[in-house]
Specification:
about 575 residues; alpha+beta; 4-stranded antiparallel beta sheet; about 15% strand; about 40% helix
């Protein structure tokens, strides 16, 4: 058969691919904690061989990995060790092109295994179906490039199950689907395929030197443009390695390539740990509003639900919270939905007219006729009659009264009993949104009310990461590496911490997103309370676990449990 000009090289139909997938214990590649290897050898679209075996990693498999893969320690106890499996796999894959979904992960483990057991790494050609799918498929075809999503898109005959052979079989069908797509683009040979994968522009390659001066520490990086304007802000656990990725094939986002083409220099802010980096990123986004950060379009834009200051208060969606406000909400629509739910439960008025304390004689609206409002606009209610509804709202928001929640639960039961299931479902979703909003408000407001709190998280290497939090804001951060006495470090951090003066509103003027970030860090497993300005939260004062105290009243926990049950 005569070859066409576009088939010069090794035609794809003559290439032997070995599609591989590994299951691991979740550790680093250097640990070589492989628990299962599955591989399928294909040539010309046909399967010519399969390889599958469990592997004894030599230690227990973590529970979260067992839950994901279904591979237990008992299952691999009788399996061969990696030093017996590896030679057989290398022989199976000899001379073939290695294919994997997120090939960097699988090849890193295989390379580390070869180094550990004294086998030379064969350095095969590698095709990553994850990278190829990002090059070929647009957002109109798929928003996710996970193997499960691609298997569905291409109608794979095997469903991915987080078991090695099943995932390898699914990847085979994904590979064939992607090769069909790029075939119409003139990619007919192995050489053309390998040349098609790295989508690196000459401009990207020329600017690699911008990362040369950066440290290999956690922090925040800022790309600056021709006029020294900030183009993009990001965080990294290793600044040099992360920024270098913008100049390699691993960066496939068109928006970022455009940003890199404009960048003139990269500035870095070193941080003690990832929490400080995350907080500094939020502050820099708010300060610079860089054009290429999607999050910078509306930095710190949150909404609150608050009672108006008038004789017959109503619920209003506002940007500036006052004391007693409910929130924060990420969108106005969510805030409006919760405000409507709360007003309906408390029978607060929803009209926007201003009603004097002496009342009015206007015609009542439709809501009054339906019994959803006491009609103060028509003089049917006085300020004294109206006050209990206001107290029910403030009581729920502040965690003192759950009458409105019981009222909503009763309404839900009545709708279900009457077989109005669609209305009951809508009511359920409205109540869940309200419950979670109140629970979030309690947590963040509790943290913002503490004048000073010092938390410590293990760094994974025998040391500690510290955060000094004052009124919901990060005032200082530092680390005590293994072997360093931690308490002197804490004393120094507290002494040098930023002075934070509380403001008004539920969060005392703190940024809602920053306070939420601090809350998530403080409530991670393993984080300990080192010091707090609240004496009744210290040991010896009868306080329970400090996370319970940080949630203020037990109402916050009860609300969350109720929300989960309703959902």
């Amino acid at each position: 058969m005569q070859l066409a000009f576009d088939e010069l090289g090794t035609p794809l139909r003559d290439v032997t691919f070995v599609v591989v997938d590994l299951e691991t214990t979740g550790g680093a590649p250097s640990d070589a904690g492989i628990t299962e290897i599955g591989a399928v050898k294909v040539r010309g679209g046909e399967v010519v061989g399969e390889f599958a075996t469990l592997v004894d990693p030599g230690g227990p498999i973590p529970p979260q990995v067992v839950a994901l893969t279904g591979i237990t320690t008992a299952m691999v106890r009788a399996a061969p060790r990696l030093d017996r499996v590896l030679p057989a796999f290398l022989e199976f894959a000899a001379g073939a092109v290695l294919v994997a979904h997120n090939a960097r992960f699988d090849t890193a483990f295989l390379r580390a295994a070869c180094e550990t057991h004294g086998y030379p790494w064969p350095n095969p050609a590698v095709v990553c179906t994850l990278t190829l799918s990002r090059r070929v498929l647009g957002r109109h075809e798929t928003r996710s490039h996970r193997l499960s999503a691609l298997a569905t898109l291409f109608g794979a005959r095997t469903t991915p199950t987080h078991r090695a052979l099943d995932d390898a079989k699914a990847t085979v069908d994904v590979l064939h689907g992607l090769l069909e797509r790029i075939g119409s683009l003139g990619v007919q040979s192995l050489e053309e395929l390998l040349g098609y994968l790295p989508d690196v522009t000459p401009t990207q390659r020329r600017k690699r030197h911008l990362a040369a001066h950066l440290p290999g520490t956690p922090g925040v990086y800022l790309f600056r443009g021709p006029s020294d304007e900030v183009l993009y802000v990001g965080t990294a656990s290793d600044l040099r390695r992360r920024v270098r990725q913008y100049f390699t094939a691993s960066e496939g986002r068109g928006r970022m390539k455009e940003m890199v083409s404009l960048a003139e220099r990269v500035e870095a802010v070193e941080c003690a740990h990832s929490l400080e980096a995350g907080v500094r990123e939020l502050r820099l986004l708010a300060a610079h509003r860089p054009a290429y950060n999607r999050r910078s379009r509306n930095p710190g834009k949150v909404w609150w639900v608050a009672l108006t200051d008038e004789p017959f208060p109503r619920l209003s969606v506002v940007r500036r919270p006052r004391d007693g406000a409910l929130g924060p909400f990420s969108s106005r629509n969510r805030a409006t939905t919760v405000a409507d739910t709360l007003a309906g439960l408390a029978r607060l008025r929803t009209c926007t007219r201003r009603i004097p304390a002496a009342g009015s004689a206007e015609a009542p609206c439709v809501l009054a006729e339906l019994g959803r409002c006491g009609a103060p606009c028509a003089g049917a209610q006085t300020t004294v009659d109206y006050a209990p509804s206001v107290r029910l709202v403030t009581g729920l928001v502040e965690g003192r009264d759950t009458t409105l929640l019981h009222r909503g639960h009763d309404q839900l039961g009545e709708l279900a009993a009457a077989q109005h299931f669609e209305r009951a479902a809508r009511r359920r979703d409205e109540l869940v949104a309200l419950l979670r909003a109140v629970a979030k408000r309690h947590r963040l407001a509790a943290l913002a009310s503490v004048a000073e709190l010092v938390g410590a998280a293990p760094d994974g290497a025998g040391g500690w990461e510290f955060a000094v939090v004052r009124h919901g804001r990060l005032a200082s951060a530092g680390v005590a590496r293994r072997g360093t006495p931690p308490l002197p470090v804490v004393d120094a951090l507290v002494a040098s911490a930023e002075t934070v003066l509380p403001g008004t509103g539920p969060l005392r003027g703190a940024n809602a997103e920053e306070t939420a970030l601090l809350w998530r860090w403080l409530t991670r497993p393993g984080v300990r309370l080192v010091r707090t300005s609240q004496p009744w939260a210290e040991p010896g004062h009868g306080a329970g676990p400090w996370r319970d105290w940080l949630g203020t009243a037990d109402t916050a926990t009860d609300l969350e449990r109720t929300a989960d049950a309703l959902a």
